[in-house]
Structures are given as C-alpha cells and as structure tokens.
Fold this sequence. Notes:
By secondary structure, the chain is mainly alpha-helical. Helix content is about 50%, strand content about 10%.
Amino acid sequence: MGRLLGRIVVGLTSSLICFIAYSSQIFVIWPWYGRVVSIELLTLLVPFNLLVAMLLWNYRLCVVTDPGRVPDGWQPDTASMEGYEVKKLTGGPRYCRTCEQYKPPRSHHCKSCKRCVLRMDHHCPWVDNCVGHFNYGHFIRFLFFVDLACSYHLAMVTRRVTHAMHSRIWDVPEGVELVFIILNYVACIPVLLMVGGFSLYHFYCLLGNSTTIEGWEKDKVATLVRRGKIRDIKFPYNLGKRRNIESILGPNPWLWCWPTRTPGTGLKYQLAEGDGKWIELQRPDYKEQWYRREDDDEFV
C-alpha cells in the first residue's frame, strides 16, 4: 500500500510539472504568437524547454537512484586516524539494532525505506525515496531547475498579460486562453514559493556540507552550548564552501548543473583539516559522542 501511494504521489508530482510546463505553451504562448513557428517564438520557448528537460531528468534520477545502502558485513576501522562516530552509552561505533549492522558516519535508519541510508538527509514523499549520498546532488539540481523554470514560466506568462494590457488593438485573453493563464498562475506561484524556500535551506546546507538531520543536531548542540552544558564545538565536515560543493556536485564547476555521480563511497567523509590524534570527548545530555583532535577541537 505504501509503495502504491508513493507511486501515485510521484505520478501526481510529474503531472503537475508537465501541466505547468506544457499547458502554458500550448494554450497561452502558442495562440499568442498566432500558432506560427518563428525565430522569436523559438527564442522564447527553447530555453524554457531546456530548463524543463533538466528539471524532469533530475527529478527522475531522484526517484530511481538508490541513495546508498550499507554493505553487508561493513565494520568501521577503529584503528584508523580518520575518526568514526560512537554512541554515548556504549562508547562503541554506532550500531543499528533494526538492521543489525554498524552504521557508517552520517548514515541513519529510515523507517519508510526500512534500512540504513548513507549520508541520509531526509525521506522525501514527493520522490518516494530517501535523499542520501548518491542522489542528493540530483535533488539539489532538481530544486535549482524548479526555481529557474518556474521563474521563467511566470515571466513568460506575465509578459503575455502585460502585452494585452498595453496593446492598442483588441488582444485581451479570453475563453480557453484566459482560463489557462489563471490556472498557470494558481499552480506555479505556490510551487515557486514553497520550493523556493526549501531550495534556500538546502543551498545553505550544501554550502556548509550539512544534512537536514545534522542541521537538527547542530541546533541541539547550540542549545546545550548556550545552557553551558558543553563547550562550543566545530562541525567536522565543513571543508569550506568550494570544497563542500565539490563533495556533492563534483570537482568540475562546468558540470555542477549536469547530472553526475556523487564522489566517494558514502562510507567515509573527508574531515576539516587539522593534525593530532583523536580522543574521546564526553558530552552530557547528548545522545552521541564524537571524537575530536586534541589540538583544534574538530569533531567527527
């Protein structure tokens, strides 16, 4: 039942995207240009359709790409100097009782997917999939192209409306065209506002190399710091804005907008620079321990 509902949601989401993208062209822009193909019409519609194509491509990749699963029998290298996350109560590596296996850094168990997901960000009902290590880049690009395509769409439809308002001849939209102009505004504006706000949050997370779950955890840590229960700590995965983006979208800036495989295995992550051995730090009233470097207070 859950799987069927997820497919229905994906189908409805895809239908909404296609409705906004193509009804505006078929019932608003095409009649406005006299149903005749011209250079001016192509100049207007070709960029828009490229944005829509990239949007749909990345949306499909979000849906079908496995976000990453923990290999059977995986165990953390406790002798490595790379660091690993431990549980506060046991002092041992994080372990998932449901999956009965160890959890790599930044991984979490998803109740919807019924398994641990590598670098889990959140479970997204709109793509019927977890957003994790291997599809987070597709998810970021999907949000980016939704913002661009919706902005372009609104500018295109608004241009039609303003042209009618300032035209000296009778060119007021009516009938089917008027209905679809209204429907496109009603469908597109809420999508742009909601996805736009969501996008800003995830672009912020991308720049800080943080997941949604880690954002919640950092908020909890900040609260404990303010209450004086722990001292201030540094998030260990923040490598600097450029390297944070590269860790998700790849090292080539020219390919950041092109669907590519996320670098790495999702089983370990590069840490902020610093030397020194890892020592255990007790953190009262917090659910997990991290390790820190003795000389620079960086955590992992």
